[in-house]
Each structure stands twice: as C-alpha cells, then as structure tokens.
Design goal:
The structure holds 2 protein chains of 2 kinds.
Chain A: H1 2-9, H2 12-18, H3 23-36, H4 44-53, E1 58-63, H5 69-75, H6 80-88, E2 91-95, H7 103-116, E3 121-126, E4 129-130, E5 138-139, E6 142-143, H8 144-152, E7 155-161, H9 163-167, H10 169-172, E8 180-181, H11 183-186, E9 192-195, H12 202-215, H13 228-231, H14 235-238, H15 242-247, H16 257-260, H17 279-282, H18 323-332, H19 336-354, H20 361-365
Parallel strand pairs in A: 1-2, 1-3, 3-7, 7-9
Antiparallel strand pairs in A: 4-8, 5-6
Chain B: H1 21-38, E1 42-45, H2 55-63, E2 69-73, E3 77-82, E4 88-94, E5 100-107, H3 118-148
Antiparallel strand pairs in B: 1-5, 2-3, 3-4, 4-5
The chains are: A alpha/beta, B alpha+beta.
C-alpha cells in the first residue's frame, strides 16, 4: 500500500525513469502518442513536457449492459508497449472484468478509490443502463443506475466508452426491452466524453485517456459529445474509395466487377457518409485495414440508433436520377452530393428515431 | 483451397485514387526549401493522411534511400534513414511485436530522436562515476589484500 501511494505521488516521467525507460524511448512514446491522438507532430515536445509532469489519475471503470467487446478492444490494442505505458500511467482501481478482487473486496476497492480521490478520479463506463427494472442488470446486488449515480458523484469527468454507454447502443435498439439509456441521459452535471463505436477503436479509447492525462482537460467535443480529434470527419470524407464515389463508380453487388475493382460501397449500404469516426485513417488491427478496405460497407456503429437505421445493406439514400450524371455535376459543384446525402441520411435516421416505439415484454408475448 | 478459388482484387493504385501522393511530395519540397532558407524543421505524420493501399509504399519508393541508415532499440525497434533527398528522413517506429506505431517524414538536418538526450546523459554520467568508483575501490582492496599477504 505504501509503495502504491508513493507510486501515485510520482510523476509519469519519474515512474518511467525508475523503470529504466530512457528519455529517447519516452520521446518515441510521445511521437506515437501524438500520432495516436491525431495531433500535429509539432505538438510532440508539448506532449513530452506535459506527460513528464503528469501524475497518475485514479480510474474507475463500470461495466453495465454490455458484451465486454469494448474492454476486449482496449486490451487487444496493437501498440502493446505504448498502451502498457498508458496503463502504467493511470491507476485502474476498479474494473470488474480485469481486477483480481471479487465480491465485497472489489466493491471495497471502488469505495476506497472514490473516497481517496474524491472529485479527481476519472469514471469510465461501458454499457447502457436499464431503467425499466433495476433487476435487469446488477453488480454485487447494486443496480446499474444506483452504482452510476453513486460513482459519478465524485468523478472529475466521465468517459462513456462504446455506443451502448454513449447512446444506448444495441440494448436501446427496438424494442428496447430493458428501457436502456445512455450515461448522458441520466447524468447532467458532469463533463461527459462519448467514445462510441461497437467497439471503439482501441487507440481512440487510450487517446482520450492520454489527452486527459496530458492536458488535464477534456478534448474538444462535437454536438454528440464525441472528441472532434477522432470523430470530426466522416468516414466518407476520409475514405480512400471516396474518389470512386465522386466519379460515380459503385459496386452494385458484393461479387461484381466494381467490388473487385474496389469501387465505392455506397449502393451496398455503406453508412460512411453519415458516420463520424477515425476508422479510415487510424484503421484496425495495427493499422492493417478497416471494414471498407476489406470490402464491407460501414455499419455506422459510432452513430446513435445505428441498429435501427433501416438495414445495413440498404443504401442510405438512393438517387432519383442516373448516379453518374448526378455525381459529375456534384464533382463540378464541389462534391455537394456528399453533403446532401449526409443530410438526407441524418433526416432518415431522425425519422427512424421518431418512429421508435417502446415495446414491453407483454407486447412481445401477445 | 487453390488460389484460383480466391476472389481476385485489383484495387487501383496511383495518384488517381486519393490524390495524396503528389501533394505530400510537394509538401516535402516546400519543407525542404524552408529548412534551407530558415533552418526550420518540419514533420509529416504519414498515419494522419488517408492513403489507399500501396500509396504509402509509392511515397517511400519515390523518396528512396540515401547515405545514412540507423536503427534504434527503444521500446521496440525504430528504423531511421535519410532518403535520397538530403535533409528528408523517414522514421518508422515499431512496437515490440514489430507492428508499426508511427511513421513520420522529418525534414531536418538531423532527427532529434537520434541525438543523445540530456536526461540519459546525466544518468549515464552517474553510472560511469559509480562504476569507476567501484572499480577504484576494488583495486584498492586488492592492493591492500596483496600488501597484507
């Protein structure tokens, strides 16, 4: 415990040096971190300076109605050394999937961390919260709602990891049998950072943690509470297949000539134009690829109600006239079609959301 | 499964795809001119730019290899070399599983990461002094032991 406390008092720079990590290694770590956080390389010295002085924040991670995919994503992060350094630089005081303690001991660890770091700890949540019946999801006999309210009270900020915590996700999809809601539907008096995705890209999760660690602030957010660094541009705008869209070259089926030539997957239901995430640049599996590069349309998993968006393989908006002609005009007009399609897609999502009806267990049994 | 039964993809590679190869090469040209005229260095993060399959390789092939090639072993390997365009360096950081965690084009006289760092030199000096002191004490002890015998 004494060692734990003294370790918490150390800055990250001191911790790394005591582990024999050289300044040169630290600079390499900072370069990878800047790249991961999509910051300009000119920020590397600033990051190095801030991380050198950073102290380990306490992190409490609560998992509610979720599939553990978000934790799987994070712990399978490709940049093993860099991720482990970030993990070394936080004090993960409660995570019921990863911690060794169980039962009363686990809950005691959470309570101790809350008391010791009141007002300063980071709360990470994955999974949605059922409001219909508290018994749908409990931990140590405590309902998700009660645990969230209790733990959020002393948090400096909350990170909602995954689409379930950020927007309700799959539990919230029709007919939403548990009355699932997102963290931001319940908590209104704390800064909340939404990191959606099903699951989120691992480096996006650690990028947000690192941003807080580096600058002690929450990153700039969009209108859905997502960090603009990672969610500021649509998949479509950053997609390497975008030029095919602009030229009106589309795959019509998964095995036609267009699919073989790597043409745009818009007509096969790609939600790239209405989805904001970093998949097209950060990519997955160590930067190897992302769904569109593998020949599959984007599902839009980082957007609210993506499960109820009208079908994964249905184009978000079919053009009313010859698409080639339309896109030629669009290219001349500065790719206005992309914007229009995005707006139409959003309208469609909004109407789907409006038509969303809650169905009870009784309804299902009729 | 024979190769013939696998789907054959022929994703087009070249400047017609994302149009990012030529702009990056021109950005390098501007940065090199700035380095010559003002001494100011620049860095381009290749991972922040959407590139189609093969385009990163096209950029790297175009830049080629120059006279200096260095390898680091710091939190996994890193490969650093000056391209055939003097002052333009390609830096690739790998993790311990040999996955790329960062790839940068640095336009500079000498990349910072290759320089010996002040903090490391301070630790090195302490270590060297301790080792010499230890060696000196050992020598002294041995001399005293020989004298006593």
């Amino acid at each position: 415990m004494t060692n734990d406390l003294s370790r918490k008092d150390k800055t990250l720079g001191e911790t790394l040096r005591s582990q024999g990590i050289s300044r040169r290694s630290f600079l390499k770590f900072c370069a990878a971190t800047a790249s991961m956080m999509a910051l300009p390389p000119s920020m590397i010295p600033t990051i190095a300076n801030a991380l050198e002085k950073a102290r380990r924040p306490s992190v409490i991670w609560l998992s509610f109605q979720e599939c553990t995919g978000c934790t799987e994503s994070l712990t399978r992060a490709h940049t093993a050394t860099v991720e482990s350094l970030i993990f070394d630089s936080i004090s993960l005081d409660y995570h019921h999937t990863l911690q060794a303690a169980a039962g009363h001991a686990a809950e005691a660890a959470r309570e101790a961390a809350m008391e010791e770091n009141n007002g300063k700890y980071l709360l990470v949540v994955d999974g949605s919260i059922p409001l219909d019946n508290p018994g749908y999801s409990t931990i140590a006999g405590i309902s998700n709602y009660d645990m969230l309210m209790d733990t959020a009270r002393g948090a400096a900020a909350i990170i909602s990891v995954g689409t379930c915590a950020a927007f309700g996700g799959i539990p919230h999809a029709k007919p939403n049998p548990t009355g699932a809601v997102s963290v931001s539907d319940i908590i209104k008096d704390k800064p909340i950072i939404n990191v959606p995705g099903c699951p989120p890209i691992p480096v996006v999760i650690t990028g947000v943690l690192t941003h807080f660690l580096t600058f002690g602030t929450i990153p700039e957010l969009d209108n859905l509470g997502r960090p603009k660094t990672f969610y500021g541009q649509s998949i479509h705008d950053r997609c390497y297949r975008r030029p095919f869209y602009d030229k009106g070259l589309f795959a019509e089926t998964f095995d036609d000539e267009g699919a073989r030539l790597g043409w745009c997957l818009y007509k096969l239901g790609c939600k790239g134009p209405t989805s904001y995430n970093a998949c097209a640049t950060t990519k997955w599996n160590g930067g190897v690829s992302f769904p569109i590069e593998a020949g599959h349309p984007c599902l839009g998993c980082s957007e609210p109600d993506f499960w109820d968006g009208g079908g994964f393989y249905k184009a978000i908006s079919m053009p009313t006239e010859n698409i080639t002609k339309t896109t030629i005009y669009a290219a001349a007009a500065g790719v206005a079609v992309g914007v229009a399609v995005g707006a139409t897609g959003r309208m469609k999502k909004a109407s789907a959301s409006k038509a969303h009806q809650k169905v009870t267990i009784d309804d299902l049994e009729k | 499964m024979s190769d013939a039964s696998l789907p054959q993809f022929n994703i087009q590679i070249g400047n017609d795809l994302t149009w990012n190869v030529q702009p990056i090469l021109h950005e390098i040209r501007h940065a090199l001119r700035k380095l010559l005229e003002t001494g100011e260095s620049s860095i381009i993060d290749l991972r922040s730019i959407p590139l189609a399959p093969g385009e990163e390789e096209t950029i790297i092939d175009t830049l080629g290899c120059g006279e200096v090639h260095a390898k680091l072993n710091a939190l996994g390997p890193s490969e650093i070399y000056e391209t055939r365009f003097t002052g333009v360096w390609l830096i690739t950081h790998f993790n311990e599983e040999s996955s790329i965690i960062g790839r940068f084009i640095e336009i500079t006289r000498f990349p910072d990461i290759l320089k010996s760092q002040h903090e490391d030199m301070t630790i090195a000096l302490d270590q060297l002094e301790q080792e010499l002191e230890h060696a000196s004490l050992s020598d002294q002890n041995e001399t005293e032991a020989e004298t006593n015998t």
